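queue> pop job 88
queue> type: inverse folding (structure -> sequence)
queue> payload:
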């Protein structure tokens, strides 16, 4: 991620989702972030859905921001703007 190798980072995160770590929230969040940066909207959406199911309390505002970026990336601008507006008063960063 630090070297902007997002697709490679996503593959590395995916390889970590095995065994006891198959639903690890930190790994899923990393995968979602890497997929968003890589522009892989389907992978990002899947990771976000798993994150919501398996670790709903982990970084909810950051997760919501990733959801907005996926919507924006898919061209669903009105939906993305609605999420961004929702986050403005709550999100610090």
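queue> result:
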């Amino acid at each position: 991620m630090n070297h902007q190798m997002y697709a490679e980072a996503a593959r590395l995160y995916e390889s970590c989702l095995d065994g006891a770590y198959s639903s690890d929230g930190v790994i899923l969040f990393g995968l979602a972030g890497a997929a968003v940066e890589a522009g892989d909207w389907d992978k990002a959406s899947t990771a976000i859905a798993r994150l919501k199911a398996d670790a709903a309390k982990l970084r909810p505002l950051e997760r919501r921001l990733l959801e907005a970026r996926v919507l924006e990336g898919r061209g669903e601008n009105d939906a993305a703007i609605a999420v961004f507006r929702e986050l403005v008063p709550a999100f610090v960063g």
